[in-house]
Amino acid sequence: MPAICRRCRSKPAEVRLPYARMSLCPDCFRRYFEDRIRRTVEEFKMFKSQDTVGVAVSGGKDSAALLHGLRQAFPGLKLVALHVDLGIKKYSEHCLEKVRALTRGLEVELHVFDLKRELGFSIDDFRLTPYRRKICAPCGTIKRHLFDELAREAGVKVLATGHNLDDVVGTMLTTFLAGDWSQLVRLKPVLPPLSPLQTRKVKPLLRSPEWEDLLYAAYSDLPFRDIGCPHAGGTRVRRNQELLEALSRRNPAFRHQTLNNFLRLIPILEKHVDQPPLTTCRRCGYPSSAEVCAYCRRVELVKNTLEKRRQRSKLNPLLRGINRDQANDI
Amino acid sequence: MPAICRRCRSKPAEVRLPYARMSLCPDCFRRYFEDRIRRTVEEFKMFKSQDTVGVAVSGGKDSAALLHGLRQAFPGLKLVALHVDLGIKKYSEHCLEKVRALTRGLEVELHVFDLKRELGFSIDDFRLTPYRRKICAPCGTIKRHLFDELAREAGVKVLATGHNLDDVVGTMLTTFLAGDWSQLVRLKPVLPPLSPLQTRKVKPLLRSPEWEDLLYAAYSDLPFRDIGCPHAGGTRVRRNQELLEALSRRNPAFRHQTLNNFLRLIPILEKHVDQPPLTTCRRCGYPSSAEVCAYCRRVELVKNTLEKRRQRSKLNPLLRGINRDQANDI
């Protein structure tokens, strides 16, 4: 005999929430998920109901659940979806398709930044740089910057991202264990802008386990990507997830408790951590700890690499021609 | 061809220290181990050279390495060994034998507290109480109290314990992850006494990995126990060790880095954590957060349990007698 939903006491339960010792039917689970988004937004005063909120959508389950969840939790809120087309072969086209279907279905305005068209390179091109198999690092830097630009163009002051409980706790734990406190304090649920060029960043899914984002997106029939990024397999991220899994197996509430611990710790550390002094990037004008910011340096690196390659490939036919002529001489 | 010792450049290396990327011969390893003890004692100002230092010896490798290491690192220092005979069947006799051999060999005065003789119960008797398979908890409480008593009787103001790097980091990490900050700040390398009845507690092996304590004790031909405590298999402690192993496999310096992080964190947390208000135990007079301290409550529990059992076993023959008489009646 199947268990009965703990909330409605009528339909069969399908979702087990071990940390809450509760089983819910799909409909009640969706309400529960949306209530949690609303409570999280209110708890951290992420935005006001009259704000226009930009939502960074990637094509994945988390940002799909975020966009739909925010719409349900705050029916009157003005939402704008922002997407960066990273130009990753096959993958990015698939993601953009899902994003278009999602925003069309929810009737949300979509702004897309096309990396290849606007800047002349794709994330794939980092394979030619020394980043080779560690592409997640420059990709993150570039996305963070471009979402700020997209948000500014779209006129939104708040940018919501789909970071889930597993993402946040995993990053907090790794950053803490690495002793990088100045980075740790930047992981707070609301990150105010450091300059007028930046947006206030908020994480309404902070308390939503990754698995529940997936369930919510599936139960809500949201379109989301079903292929993985070819550059992922990111060693550190994946290893963190394994560590979290191991710790959560012993204690189903581990992630929730650890998040609360860090949320308690961060304001204390903030008073004691010296943030690196910030200056203004002389290329893009964004806040930076160096003369040229990480974004501009990554862009320059990949553009220079592509340029050198182009010049070499222009020379190659000439060189091959010379060789052929020499061969003919023999 | 075997590697050559990095220090003396003459003898074959036998000990690999992956976190330091260094291989040493046994003699140089022992010097290295003793130097680290000396530096640790000085770094945290654990004691002065004219102090008499009590060393808690259990019969195990860590406290054996500690006693011998302190003797070598501070040749003029007055040392007194303190041991609690826990009355654990077979195990405690074996430990006491090793402790006697160790202190005899090092010509160090030994004070023993015999739990069974002095208090009328053994740690084994906790099996009859609700602690059953979680005997490590009351055993720890009782040992901590009795080492304070032993130290006072022996006239020592500083008590050194053999907690190694793995112990300390494992406990720090678990305590931190459990969000128990008031307990975390008590894990600092020097714990001052809260009352004149208590001793200053210091951990000179704080920076010594467990594995190196074992090697040092073995290379120094120290007697130490070769059987395990029958009550161990302590779930939490063992699981912590597994977690540490997993994290260290990825980064050989993980434990060292994590220790340094916590040593940096603890003074900050100390200012923000409210320690539970302390009163004086009305039985033993030691500092306590309750009217009767944890030690006195554990002792009372086990004594009451034993007393009830004794009374029941006095009654049993009578009851059996009655049953026999009834049987005869039929």
Walk me through the structure.
2 copies of one chain form a homodimer. Chain A has 330 residues and is α/β, with parallel strands linked by helices. Chain A has one domain: Rossmann fold. The first copy, chain A, is 51% helix and 11% strand. The first copy, chain A, is built from 11 helices and 10 strands. Chain A has helices at 26-43, 61-73, 91-106, 115-119, 136-154, 165-177, 181-184, 210-219, 235-250, 254-272, 294-329, and strands at 15-17, 22-24, 52-56, 78-85, 109-114, 158-160, 190-191, 200-202, 279-280, 287-288. A 6-stranded mixed β-sheet of chain A has the order 5-4-3-6-8-7, sandwiched between helices. The first copy, chain A, has a two-stranded antiparallel ribbon with strand order 1-2. A two-stranded antiparallel ribbon of chain A has the order 9-10. In chain A, a hairpin with a 4-residue loop joins β1 (15-17) and β2 (22-24). The longest helix of chain A is centred in the last third of the chain and has 36 residues, at 294-329. Chain A is globular. The model of chain A has no long low-confidence stretch (mean pLDDT 91).
